[in-house]
Structure formats: structure tokens, C-alpha cells
Amino acid sequence: MSVPILKQGDVLIASIQAALSDRELAQLHDAFAEQVGRFRSRGVIIDVTALDVLDSFATRTLRSIAYTAKLRGANAVVVGIQPDVAFAMVQLGLSLEGVATALDLEEGLAYIRDVAKRGGQRVR
Amino acid sequence: MSAEVSVSIERDADIVTARHEGRQLAAAAGFSSADQTIIALAISEITRNIVSYAQCGKLTLSRMDEGGRRGILIVAQDDGPGIPDIDLAMRDGYSTAGSLGVGLPGARRVMDEFELVSAPGKGTTVTMKKWLR
Q: Which of A53, A1, A52, A63 lies closest to A29, judged by CA?
């Protein structure tokens, strides 16, 4: 199952709907890297609300998506990490250091607009 | 209800199945939703080690009831190349697979009991226990 990436103005949104294998996560990473350039996106949102676990591979891939997007001129934000998922990550020692996070999609969009505004960009 | 569940681990998609089975069994055993997530996460890490280093192996999950103490027993076993230096493998940030190196030490941190038995050429067995509180 591949994750559809929706384009909303200058922002790309991937809403993950079910548990992903490592390969599917890697595909999502590559799709984002390509589409940020193709659509000249300013922001990338990864919605993980539906995920019941974020392990070391998922964490590493999310970080890589965010850093890659940043190098391509887009800000990334991970939204929807569930309370139990966050708790388990902390216990295990996993972090999303350097990656912006927001409570949900709405907050994530607000964050992207806010960062763009401070940077003097206009986000459609 | 079956007391033991076994999942063969051969590719990355099996990791998803393994943690799903782990969560189901943990829920049936009475673990809280937070503990179910922690158990699923630990299973994800030890089964990924099988896929990354040994290619194939097996995860066995069972419920424990020892003198009124109840919990879950998780055994991940493979016949892969084994781990030459276990102390090094258990160190935070050490990895030979280009990963974060947090999987095994992280799994040990969140479980009540954790044992890793391995030798070069003899495969690896990780045994983890978590007790109901």
C-alpha cells in the first residue's frame, strides 16, 4: 500500500492510514523528495494519526523526510503522534530531534503558514 | 484462546504482522494501552534486527502465569550470523546496519527482563518478559 500525497496549494500532505512496512516508508520518503521539487512546495505535512507505533526505522525515515524537504526549500511538520506512541518513543529513547511537530493537521498547516510568513514567503 | 502465537520473520512486512500480534496478545493479557504500545515497539525493534542481520527467523509470543504473576513472554530467534560482541551491540548508538543503534538497548530499557544469547555462526535469541502491574 502506498501513501497518497495530496497537494494543497504550496503544501504537500501525506496522511498515513495504516501501518507501513519499512519499504513503504522508504517509498514515501522518495515520493516527497521528488514532489517537493516538481510542485515547488513550501511545506510538507506527514500525518501519523493512524499509526499505533513509531519505531526506530519510522523515526529515522520521518527525520530524513524532514531534513530532505528542508534542503529542498520546504518546511516539514509531523502531525498527530498519539499519546501512547509518544510515551513509548520516550521510554525507548527515540526522538524526532530537529523535526517540527504539531498536534494535528490544522495546527500543522498553521505552523507552515507561520514559518513562511516569518521568512517573508507567501504560501498559497 | 491459544496461549502461544508464532510469526515467521522473513521480510519487512512481517515486522508489521509481528507487532500487531504482540499488541493483540498484550491486550488479551490485560496490559494497558500504553504498555501494549511499548510491547509492540520492542517487538518491532527485535524483529527488525532479524530482517536486517539474519534475513529469517521466528518470533514466538506467549502469556506467562507464574505463581499469580502474569505477563507476556517474547522470544525472537534466528539462525543468522550471530553477534560477535554483545556488549557493543547493546550499546546505545552502535549499529553495523546504518540504523540508529537504539533498537536492542531501547527494547531492553522498556522490558522487565531482557536476555540476548548469541555467538558468531550460532544465530541469535532475544528473550524478553514484561509483567502485568
A: A63
